[in-house]
Design brief:
alpha+beta, Sulfite Oxidase, Chain A, domain 2, 2 domains, single chain, globular, 421 residues, 6 helices, five-stranded antiparallel sheet
Length: 421
């Protein structure tokens, strides 16, 4: 008889034989159960409406990717001349805004500029006035960082007159977006041209039909301003300043002049129409605030908000964005009772300076009316104010830097509407 014959008695102890047998039985049972479960799952999948994707060859790779036809986020056009479009904040995930959903604000349309013909002139109080081509700008060391951009008029319209409850985060605060911006540090360019020590301001002038121009304190150039030519891994979109724009992180969006063509160094501001007739804040007692560049701490809940509706009681994750032009968001508090009590929300990583931060707070809705609010606190200790506190400081005529607390009322039937704080 052969040594390996199956008729040979096993040399394993009887206990081990029993163990192996049990294991085999259990394994067999698992396979049988798995087969039954698999069969039920297959029948359930087959019961779904529409064609079975496992039976149809899929699409082949494309030269340029596209969204699923089931995902249709859009910007909201506003303004009598279509001068702005708003990001759908309530439909986004994470902190990065897709480039094609980045908000727009133009004063005279989007210019068409051939990158081969692009030029940036830096002159005035410098040792070496220089004209840079786009290729020459790209030869300098590249910097890249996530920053938010926000129009200083963002949200102000929502508080005029009797605020309408049928306002979404997009229609109210959609002039806010976050991108990874890539380009050359403005400090590098200023060192290259030899800025004079007594230069304290510089002019930034755009190539659009409005020739948008702003005076910028030179300290911003030495801090973190850049000439950006990249956005979220690709060239800046035309609506964002293609082929290059000035970017002043944390400052009102209007100061980040798009399609920038000229920087002039001086020892005083230039007092252009765009910084006197606009972007100046009226204050109480006939005074006005000019050159109010920095954007103060602000937050907005993006869920649950109008037009969403809570269908059932139980767990709800309150989520939204917080940001500040003064550095890092330190804390976000959430209230479900109109500010009577506050609870600290969780900040989702990464928390970056001058960048939007996601916050989340778990809440059990009991079906009773509720009043949701959020307030941001930045690393300087600044606390996002109520609407009354904002108007006490800036007066009723203010229309820029409207960073007061936003509120959302939830009715017993789950419907939601905007309400001022």
């Amino acid at each position: 008889m052969e040594e390996n014959s199956t008729d040979q008695p096993s040399e394993q102890p009887e206990s081990e034989q029993r163990t192996v047998t049990r294991r085999r039985l259990l394994a067999g049972a698992a396979v049988a159960a798995g087969g039954a479960i698999g069969a039920r799952a297959t029948r359930a999948l087959g019961a779904q409406s529409g064609p079975d994707p496992t039976k149809v060859p899929g699409a082949r790779p494309a030269t340029v990717g596209s969204r699923s036809p089931h995902e249709t986020p859009e910007k909201l056009l506003s303004g009598s001349a279509g001068g702005s479009s708003r990001t759908p904040l309530q439909e986004l995930h994470g902190i990065v805004t897709p480039a094609d959903l980045h908000f727009e604000r133009h004063h005279h349309g989007i210019p068409e500029i051939d990158p081969a013909n692009y030029r940036l002139l830096i002159h005035g109080m410098v040792d070496r006035p220089t004209v840079f081509t786009l290729d020459e700008l790209k030869r300098f060391p590249e910097v890249s960082q996530l920053f938010f951009v926000e129009c200083s008029g963002n949200g102000g319209g929502a508080f005029r007159g009797d605020p309408r409850p049928d306002q979404s985060p997009q229609s109210m605060d959609g002039l806010l977006s976050t991108s990874e911006w890539s380009g050359v540090s403005l400090a590098t360019l200023f060192e290259e041209v030899g800025v004079h020590s007594d230069a304290t301001w510089f002019l930034a002038e755009g190539s659009d039909a409005a020739v948008m121009s702003r005076s910028i304190p030179i300290e911003k150039a030495w801090e973190d301003a850049m000439i950006a030519y990249g956005q979220n891994g690709e060239a800046i979109r035309p609506s964002q300043g293609y082929p290059a724009r000035l970017l002043n992180p944390g400052w009102e969006g209007n100061s980040s002049v798009k399609w920038v063509r000229r920087l002039e160094l001086s020892d005083r501001p230039f007092m252009f129409r765009d910084e006197t007739s606009r972007y100046t804040d009226p204050l109480p007692e006939g005074k006005a605030r000019i050159f109010s560049f920095v954007l103060d701490a602000k937050s907005i809940i993006t869920y649950p908000t109008y037009p969403a509706r809570l269908e059932n009681t139980g767990f709800v994750e309150i989520a939204g964005y917080a940001w500040t032009g003064r550095g890092l968001v330190d804390r976000v508090d959430v209230s479900t009772d109109g500010g009577a009590t506050w609870h600290e929300a969780e900040l989702q990583q990464p928390v970056l300076p001058k960048c939007t931060t996601r916050f989340r707070y778990g809440w059990e809705w009991d079906g009773e009316p509720a009043h949701l609010m959020s307030r941001a606190v930045d690393e300087t200790g600044y606390v996002q104010p109520t609407t009354a506190e904002l108007r006490d400081v800036r007066g009723p005529g203010t229309r820029y830097h409207y960073n007061s607390i936003r509120g959302w009322r939830i009715a017993a039937d789950g419907t939601i509407g905007f309400t001022p704080s």
